[in-house]
Structures are given as structure tokens and as C-alpha cells.
Fold:
Amino acid sequence: MSCMSVITRFAPSPTGSLHIGGARTALFNFMFARHHGGRYLLRIEDTDKERSNMRMVDDILDGLAWLGLEGDDEPIFQHKKIERHIEVAYQLLKNDKAYYCYCSPNELQLMRENARAEGRQPRYDATWRNRKASLNSPKGGINPVIRIKAPLSGETTIIDAVRGPVTVMNKQLDDMIILRADCTPTYMHSVVVDDHDVGITHVIRGEDHLNNTFRQAIIYQAMGWELPTFAHIPLIYDSNGSKLSKRQGAVNINVYREMGYLPEALNNYLLRLGWSYGKEEIISHDRAIKLFDLSGIGRSASRFDFAKLENINSHYIRKTDNNKLTDMVLARLSAGANNLDLTDEIRLRIYLGMDGLKTRARTINELSNNARFYAASPPLSLDEKASQLLDNCALNILSGIAQTLSELSSFHESNIKHTICLFAKENRLKLGQVAQPLRAAVTGSINSPSIFEILAILGKKETLRRIDNACSINKKGY
Ligand code: GLU
Structure:
């Protein structure tokens, strides 16, 4: 196969939001197509009208857009292809690869009960397979379904690109319905027709679809269509080894977005969740395109590891441009109900403080919370530790350093640092005994980037205002 011909697809059913597993499937399909210079398509599998929901379609497309995993063309909506699915079902019928089945619901029920009683798998017993519908007089009122003729003996082997050859005995496959009595195609049938019609060359999807592959293969073979290459990716488990589910943690991509994960970090993490290249953990988008291939997909289940995701997110936060981070922080601060007046001056403070802030944050939410003090106007609310720290002794030190700082003519970081160090020395204090009360007073917390940098960014007036406020509010009487 020439490299140019690769076409992959991500085919979500809009019965729920985009979750971690789906996003990873989309990413692998995207990367594989890009690696081969091929195309990556989106198909919304919305034929199940009762379970599909337009809101979910938007939600999924939005999540994919955020991750940069939009399809190369407009998404294909499966329900728009129903006529074609029906056409293929009739073609199979015409070619004697499928047949009408007039079994009533009661007969099917009986079939299932008998099978169960005899300890067999409940499967359709091919009653109508060799009966000519026209020669029998179907019982009135029964609209027939169309069933595909599954092979009766032998075995079917799929060479899966991840798992290698996988074989099932054909007698395990029954004559499944491809067109229901109400003339709607079944999911199994639609998938095959759609994949074939757009020329999908590689079907990369979750391992939970492996059984479907054998059933879908029957339709490909009956139509004389070439099978695509299948690659079934092992499922994702949580840190306890159980299947990742909504109950055990966040599975919805939008929740990660709200928690402040960057799309490039989530992509890098998802890429490594089940695929590897040596021991490389941090793999940029471009490098991933260069390296991605199906041979790097592991066979064992993947475990979702929050700590790893946080590490990767920290890395990408550090790499992100300060202007962009400042915008993200401002958007979050203004979304919070905190009455902050986000003026240009505040923006500038946060931008100037970004180098110090970004190395300490694991998420954009954390970054925003840590940057909040730049936007706050005095009196600052102090957290518990900061408030405890500001005892009378600390307040005295604060008054002293405030006096010294007020006399400074140049309020640059190096100058501030020099002054504070000198003040500590002259008063026989450790640097921390001066720096910590200062930090508590101007940031409201005892953890922050360099205090010298913060004071320089806040400027003399604002620094003195904050110290003054802290002193007057926290003065503790005996
Ligand atoms: N619509 C299926 C799902 O959301 C995927 C089908 C496929 O990839 O073939 O699980």
C-alpha cells in the first residue's frame, strides 16, 4: 500500500461526552494518518436515534477541536447514509449472501430458551437461511428482517496490527440482522458500509470492538470488499486496575479542560497511554507525527496515572508563552465570582510575574489561584498560615522594613533584595524572618515566587499599601 493512501477515522457515538478513551482513539487515528501523510476523518455514529443527542455531538466536536483533533473533512453523519446502507443490504440479498427471515418475536424467544436449556449459546438457528421466502407463505403481519449468511464452518483469522493473528471458529458467528423489519440498518452493517465507502484503510479502535470485527468481516467478505487493517487498542484502567469509569474519576475531556490541563499536555499524555517510543515521556506534537506507528502500541492494558499527567502538564505550562498564559489566567480570574478589577495594570503584573508563577503550577487553575494576589486589592484575605505567621513580632519587623523600603528611590528587584538582606543583617534577623512576613502581607500566603520579584512587580506604592493594611488589620493586642 502506498503511504499516501492511508485513511483513518474516529467514529464516536453521540450517546455521551468525549471521554479519555475516545480521545486517545481519535489521537492514534490522527497521528497514524499524519505520519503516513494520509487523511483522518470523523464520523458521528448517530443512527440510534433514541440514544443519540445533538448536544453530545456538539460536546464531542468541541472536545476534539480543543485537542486539535478535528477531521480533515466535515464530519460524516451516519444517519445521512442510511439509503446507502439499505441499498447494500438489498444487494447482499440479491447476491444470495443474505436472506429474509420471517421469524416472529415469539419464535426467536423460543429459540433462545431452547438454546439456554440445552446449554448452548443463544444464537439464531438459521431457520430461514435455505428457505425460499417466496415458496413459503410468511405468516401475515410479519415484516421480514434481512440476515447475512455467516460462514457455517471453518474459522476466521484477523491479523490485528496490535495483537497479531486472532482467530474465531465460524460456528460461533450467527446470521446477524443487517436490516431490521422497519427497514433500518443495524449498527454492525452501517459501520462496514461507511468504512468501505470512504476507503478507510486502517480501523484503529478500542479492544472492546474486537468481537464486532469478526462479525463485520462477514459483510466485507460477502460484498467482496477488501478488509481494512484493524488495530485494537487495549483499554484504559484506573490506578486500581478497574476499568476507567465515570464513578472513579474524571473521564470526560471537558472536565480536564476545566481543571486546567493544556490540550498539548493531554495529547502527550494520551499518546503515551498505550503507545511508546523507547523511554521518551515528553513527545511534542511534531515529533509524535514523525514517530507514531502501530508497532509502538502495547498489548497490555494502560493505567491512568494522574501524577504523570500533572508532570506532563507542568512541563507544557513552563513551555507556554507568557502572554498566552496571562490570557488564560485572566480568563479564569474573570470567570470566578471574585469581583476582581482586571485592569491593564493587573494584566501587566501577572505577565511580569509569569516566569516565577509558571514553574510552580501543575494546572492552569493552580496557576490562576497562585496569580490571584497580583489582582487582589487590599485588604488581602490571608490564608490560615499567613495569618498565624503575622504575630506581633512579625508585625514589628514589617513596620521596620516598610519604613526602609519607603526610603528607596529605585524599586528594582536587585535593589529590593539588597535592602532586605541588609535590613535583616542589621537587625540580627534571618532573611526568612523578614521575607516570610513580607510574603504573607503582600500575597496572603506563605508560598509564592521570589518575594523580591513580587515587590518589584507590585511597585513601591502597592507594596507599602499592602504592608500597611496587613499591619493595621493584624495588630494583635495583649
Ligand atoms: N461508535 C463506536 C463507539 O463509539 C465506534 C465504532 C468503531 O470505531 O468502529 O464506540
Q: What stands out?
A: The mean pLDDT is 93. Residues 89 and 369 are 58 Å apart (CA to CA). The chain has four domains: 7-73+236-309, 80-188, 321-375, 384-475. The longest helix spans residues 451-474.
